[in-house]
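Bench notes, afternoon.
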Amino acid sequence: MKPGPALFTAALLWLFLGMAAFFSGALFFAWAAAGLGVLPFIIVDLLTLLAGNRLRVRRSIPGVLAVGEKAAVTLTLTRARKGLFLPRRADIFDIYPGGMEVSAFPARLVKLPEKDGEVFFRYSILPLERGNWEFPETQLLFRSFLSFWQLKVIHPCISRGRTFPNFKKLAGHVGDLRSILEQTGQKNIRKRGQGMEFMGLREYQRGDSVKAIDWRATGRRRKVIIREYQEEQDQQILILLDSGYRLHRQEEIPVFGGVPAAEEKTIRRTQFDGALEAALVLSWAALKYGDEVALGCFGAEERWIPPRKGMGALAALMQSLYDVKSAPAPSSLFSALEGALGRLKRRTFIIMISNFREEDGESLSWIIRRIRDRHLLLLVSLREPEAEFIARRIPSNEEEALETAAAFAYLEARRKLYKVWEHSGLLTLECLPQELNSALIRYYLEIKRSGLL
């Protein structure tokens, strides 16, 4: 309970009248009469507010949300008790969790529920972070009939749920692997005549390679027959994500969807969030392609999802990784690879996503031979546009010249490190964060078609 604007105004006017009455005896009686006259109204206004109806609040919200996708929330208000009058006005504020953006509060209820009736208050939220969330309560601020008093009432209506990476575009709207491959420039899933596994015979079609013709079958059937192949399936893929300081850098990305063109905006996320999304996209493509997928995180958080096959494994991956986050903590590439080698029972295509530095060359030199003999390792590093810009710019003073030289030396050391790794039999890939999705899928397909696994 706290004073309302009318009580504050009345008290201020009564104070001014009392100051005037100090200098004029005639105004003293007016001052006393005003105070005694308004006091009953203040008391009655207080009692009516305390005895008024408090209302009930129920919240309706989806239990599963996606980052960057707007979701609707509905608050349903009903009378808590019958036969009692309602306050003059009510303001509502829903206590929403951090990591969500809401612009609807504080809001004033245009209409209060009538007897046995309901009033709906709807607003939208924009999740900005993955993980678990909880709406703890809803607050109502009632104002009395004469606006002398205000009363805040807390309704502990709890709602809990989870926010997942934004996989809706792929899982909900793309039913075929070809659709996503067309976006990456890989339109043909099967590579006729040059695959790893024989699939069957069929008649020749325009565009088929002459090298694929099976001359014996052609002679028997007296029509041109070709041999059709497809890439080998039942292979194993392991994706290792660095959740430490290397991928904790923030970046701005546009909102995925659900926002009108006039309200287009960007949200901030870490590079790890983008790497996790790319890992899930690659997992979806590999599972669609018939391979087994395992995924692990190292650094700030340790996670391990063992190899699984089939599209049902994608749900298990998302359930296990939706709440993992990066932090400015150290991460050991050597320990992550050593732990993976102890878990893997067969030849595996290992993809490690991090941001590699010159000092990583020495730390990985002890394990490169073990990996090279048993597995295929791809080291994926995210490019740093800021460092590249500084290295290319023309300095205008001595300080900028030192910065440019340092940035150039830093990038050159990274390039030399990648060359050393490639000469050692490892694979390397460097790309911008926004290009990671398509780059990973393209590299994955090239590896499968090359027969390196």
